[in-house]
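During the reporting period the student researcher (J.K.) took over the structure-prediction task from the postdoctoral fellow and processed the backlog of single-chain submissions. One of the processed entries is reproduced below for the supervisory committee.
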Amino acid sequence: MIIAKEVAIVLAIVWYIKVELLRTEQLPSYITYANMDRIPKLKADIQKQASLVYSNLYRKDDKVNKFFMADTGNSYLDGKVGRISSYDAIRCCYVAHVCKTSQWDSSVLMELSVSPQNMEPYTWVRTHIYSPSAACDSCQINLENHFTSSISSAAPTITFWPCVFSEIGGLSQSPHTGGEYQRDKLMSMLNEREKIANEKANQLYTQHLELEKRLSKLYSTRQPVQKRPRSCIQRKKPTLKASRVLQIKSVWDAKIKHFVSKAGQKRDHSRDKKNTSTCLHSHSPQLTIHCILHAQI
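J.K. obtained the following structure tokens:
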């Protein structure tokens, strides 16, 4: 039954929190794994946090959260639809919202503490196939400080890693029943995970420092835009070298002289042709004889 499986997962989370408190040495030195349950306030706090972790990370699927009320001895409640909101590990029952009608209606709900014996699944699922998935990569667990006389007055704080919890079998294999071997294995996995997390944090910190260094250098060499005077950006023509300028000038001077000489030759040729034509086509005998004599001379 899915309800029994959820109970086993919550107990595994309780075991995870206890092992992590011992690994991080956030409890007095005289506290061991065996005598944690002998301190009622600490035990209740751990169970409460385990229920919250399961509710926040794994209880998000309506097909396993909804149920029918059954065998309560109260005809008004039997057959009503409910939805699990959390698990009370101290009283070993679920805190649920039960609808006052036979159909689910969020506007008419009442909060009840329901025993697993009075719950029938809303939808039947195969418990050996179904495995809840975590809603996030990690979550922080903050417990109260139940040892006011201890050296450290800070409240214990641990990180719950769903990937580690799943890898050690917390969702399916009940590792909390494995004894000291499973505790040592969990500690080793948490040490490795913490090492990886610290390396990533150091890498991000180094990148952040490098970015700050580059920005500081940029600000020291350039004034902000607001302080710079406005100026018109002009596109300047590329300047040529002096030798190149002299070469181009010489070429153009030669071309100009060539064009001028050609134009002068054409002008002279045109003038001579015109004079000859005038002499040959003249109707005056005197001008004709004069031209002939001038040609002979």
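The committee noted the following: The chain has two domains: 2-203, 253-296.
J.K. will present the remaining backlog at the next meeting.
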